[in-house]
Each structure stands twice: as C-alpha cells, then as structure tokens.
Write a structure and sequence with these properties.
Structural class: mainly alpha
Number of helices: 10
Strand content: under 5%
Helix content: over 70%
Length: 275
C-alpha cells in the first residue's frame, strides 16, 4: 500500500524540480496538486492500517516512519499554502521520497500490545512524530537559508537567489517550524513520563518498559533534542540569534532527530521498542 503514495510523491518531486528550474506557474500548480494527491493517498493508507490494528500505526518502526512522512508533508503543504512559496518543494520532496522508501520496501508488521492500550501512549508518540516532522522542515529551511546566505555574501545573485524565498522569509518560516516542533516535543516528553509511570505499575515485568531507563539511547536523544531546540528558542529571544545562527542550529538539530529516528530504531537493540 505504501507504493502508491511513494509513486505520487516522486511525480510531485519531479514537478517541483521542473518548477524550480523554469518557474512556470502552471507547473507550480501541478506540483502542489500532485503533492495533495500524495497526501490523500497516504491518508488512505494510514486509515486502512489504523482499521487493521485499531490504533494509529506507529508502534512498528517502518510504520512510524510512514506516519512521520505524512506529517512532514502536511506541515510543508500548510507552510506552502500560507506563504505561497513553492521554491522549497525541491528540497523537501527528496527527504519525503527517501524516507517513504523505507516503509515501501519493508512495511513491517504491527502487533497488538496491551501495554500500548493507553491514550497517553498515543498522545506521546503522536506529539513526538509531529515535533520531529516540524524539526525536519526547520532543518531543510535552515540549510536553504545557509545556501542563500552564501550566495548573497559572494555578491553573486544568480540561480538560487532568483528561485528561493528571501532570507527574511526563510528565517520566519524556520522560526515558526522550530516553535511548533518545540511545543509538541515538550508535550510528547511530558506525556511519555506520565504514560511510562502508569504502564510500569500495570506491567512491571514488561521488557520494553524495563528498557525505558535514563540510559536508554532513545530517551537520551529525545532529551538532547529538547535541550538543543530549547537553547535555540532562548537564543533567538534573549541573545538575538536569528538568521544564519538559527539556521545552522536547526540543521544540527535535524541531524540529531535523524539519528534518533532511524539508526536507533533499526540498529540499537538496547532501546525500548514495540514491534
């Protein structure tokens, strides 16, 4: 089922690339339309998987990545429609396509676990996924800001300058994405603590719950991510860190998010996982 949204995302990515090169309004509208169709197809897939397991499908790592891609695409679409800036699509869609390849190739299987039968768990994971999607968007915006900044600094206002949003617009978009991500990450971490305490009382011998200790790599990376973006929020408001510094910090934060989201899920066996 994950192949259909992947195919549409690829078509949308090609359309965004053509628009970036030629700046044709008709191609831009086609790109946005294809992306909307991709989101609709992806929504249908997630809906079917939800009916299958009777909850939002993100306890399995591959399905969690699929849900993350869906949220990232929704966040980008919202940003595009509210700012009417389509120049970022050529940078966002490659991230979407590469990540969606994982559930398309290895969809995984999600099993029912009584420990997960709690609204606190679903709020916890949903908030974290939305936070990571916002940070991914902020990271791409930050890298784009750096590219635009370097081109302006060289006084060579060429290919990228005429196609990318202004530095001011990129900084505003980055700030919004980070603020939303930080809010949902804070909610996710807080609710996760509440859920873990309740779950341990109900199932003290569950191995996944026992793995949820301060030394758990997933927990450490989540706390590190919160610390990095909390500093970024503080630095922007109190230390005047905006523009290039904020963009670089967003890029660093995005690397931490990717490390937490991909290698830890698939290659580190000491972290808690429900699959």
């Amino acid at each position: 089922m994950n192949l259909l949204p992947l195919a549409i995302y690829i078509a949308a990515g090609l359309a965004y690339a053509v628009h970036f090169a030629r700046r044709q309004p008709s191609v831009a509208r086609t790109a946005t339309t294809l992306l909307m169709l991709g989101v609709l197809a992806h929504t249908f897939v997630i809906g079917m998987q939800t009916m299958e397991v009777r909850h939002v499908p993100f306890a399995n790592p591959s399905r969690a990545i699929s849900t993350f891609v869906w949220l990232l695409t929704l966040a980008y679409l919202y940003l595009e429609l509210t700012t009417e800036e389509r120049g970022m699509g050529v940078f966002i869609l490659p991230v979407v396509i590469v990540l969606q390849l994982i559930p398309a190739i290895n969809p995984g299987t999600e099993y029912a676990d009584p420990v997960l039968d709690s609204p606190w768990f679903w709020v916890h994971v949903s908030s974290l996924l939305f936070a990571y999607a916002s940070f991914a968007l902020a990271g791409v915006l930050g890298l784009t800001y750096v590219l635009q900044f370097k081109e302006i600094k060289k006084k060579h206002l060429g290919y990228l300058y005429t196609r990318l949003p202004s530095l001011q617009m990129l900084d505003v978009m980055n700030s919004r994405a980070v603020a939303v991500g930080w809010l949902f990450l804070t909610v996710g971490v807080t609710v996760g603590v509440i859920w873990a305490a309740q779950a341990r009382a109900l199932a003290p011998d569950d191995p996944n719950l026992q793995a949820m200790a301060p030394g758990d790599p997933k927990i450490l990376f989540a706390i590190l991510t919160w610390g990095v973006y909390s500093f970024g929020m503080y630095a922007r408001r109190r230390m005047g860190w905006s523009g290039r510094r904020a963009a670089l910090l967003s890029a660093v934060g995005f690397v931490i998010v990717l490390l937490n989201f991909l290698p830890l899920n698939y290659f580190v066996t000491t972290s808690h996982t429900f699959q």
